[in-house]
Write a structure and sequence with these properties.
Residues 85-253 form the DAC domain. The chain is of the alpha+beta class and 299 residues long. 60% of the residues lie in helices and 13% in strands. The chain has 12 helices and 7 strands. Helix 2 packs across helix 3 and helix 7 (117-137) runs antiparallel to helix 11 (253-264). The longest helix is centred in the last third of the chain and has 29 residues, at 270-298. It binds adenosine-5'-triphosphate.
Length: 299
């Protein structure tokens, strides 16, 4: 492409071309966000790897691999649509909800949102208090703390709650005999979003025989998302936590608190810290200047 043809292309560039580019950029942004957030995203990443292998095999003229992947890719698109059907349906549904659009644009990393620090801190205190109480009274409980993976599919399986997290509400939810005590409570942005939710069960064969479906559900959600899940055993009162497909056991109130704060409340980065300190120093200097000025005027 010569310089002249590039200049010629720019000369014919119209407003509608800009709109064209913006729409494609928006679609790619949404697609990347979708791949990043949802459980189906893991599958999409796998599909991308298969496509990359196919391209390399094609370039290197590897006939058997190319033939095999060719046959796979022919049905691949249809398979992806079938596999992602619930996600695609929900994504289309959400496109009609303008508040969700704004949310996506301004909240790239929801659990990392520093403005939610306070909400998460009080939620964690309440969760730890409740876990200790449940452990003492041998009350079964399952609590999921949402991070970046969107758990709205799971939330839909339960009953909406939308309440602040406190000991009383958690105690009521998991009180045996209430309709919501079966299933999991989902905490989103430091608030209880829903209760009585059904989680995917883990197939992990290493899970001890003493652990039944509550613990499998706890591990299952941690295998299928980046959420943190806490389970209190009705039989033994043991408090466990699952993260990234690993179940850790024997927490007490303090160790649970330390771990949850570590996982859920983002630490200030050095630049954020220095920026905050910079503003503090500037504020102090301004205050000193005002005080000095007042003293000068009085003299
Ligand atoms: N898929 C699921 N999602 C959420 N909760 C579930 C799911 N499956 C089971 N549960 C919860 O687990 C309870 C059954 O627990 P079960 O005794 O089988 O498990 P457990 O791991 O041995 O727990 P515990 O030690 O508390 O007895 C159900 O009453 C329900 O509340």
């Amino acid at each position: 492409m010569t310089l002249n043809s590039i200049v010629a292309n720019f000369q014919t560039f119209k407003l509608v071309d800009l709109l064209d580019i913006l729409i494609i950029a928006f679609l790619i942004y949404q697609l990347l966000g979708f791949v990043n957030r949802t459980r189906a995203g893991q599958l999409a990443k796998g599909a991308l790897i298969v496509m990359a292998v196919y391209l390399v095999a094609n370039i290197l003229n590897m006939r058997t691999v190319t033939w095999l992947l060719n046959s796979l890719l022919q049905v691949g698109l249809l398979t992806l649509v079938v596999l992602f059907q619930p996600e695609i349906r929900r994504a289309l549904e959400r496109m009609g909800q303008t508040d969700q659009w704004a949310y996506r644009f301004f909240n790239k990393n929801r659990y990392n949102d520093t403005s939610l620090k306070g909400a998460w801190r009080s939620a964690i205190i309440a969760i730890c208090d409740a876990a200790e109480r449940f452990s003492e009274t041998k009350t079964g409980a399952l609590i999921v703390l949402e991070r970046n993976t969107n758990l709205s599919e799971i939330v839909r399986t339960g009953t909406p709650v939308n309440s602040a997290v406190n000991l009383e509400v958690l105690g009521t939810i998991f009180y045996e005999g209430t309709p919501l005590h079966d299933g999991a409570a989902i905490i989103e942005n430091g608030r209880i979003k829903a209760a009585g939710c059904v989680l995917p069960l883990s197939n992990n064969l290493d899970l001890g025989k003493d652990m039944g479906t509550r613990h499998r559900a706890c591990l299952g959600i941690a295998e299928n998302s980046d959420a943190i899940a806490i389970v209190v055993s009705e039989e033994t009162g043991i408090i466990s936590m699952a993260k990234n497909g690993v179940l850790m056991r024997h927490f007490d109130r303090q160790t649970l608190y330390t771990r949850l704060v570590d996982e859920m409340i983002p630490k200030e980065t050095a630049s954020e810290k220095s920026a905050a300190e910079g503003w503090k120093a500037r504020g102090k200097r301004l205050l000193n200047w005002v005080n000095n000025k007042e003293e000068d005027e009085q003299q």
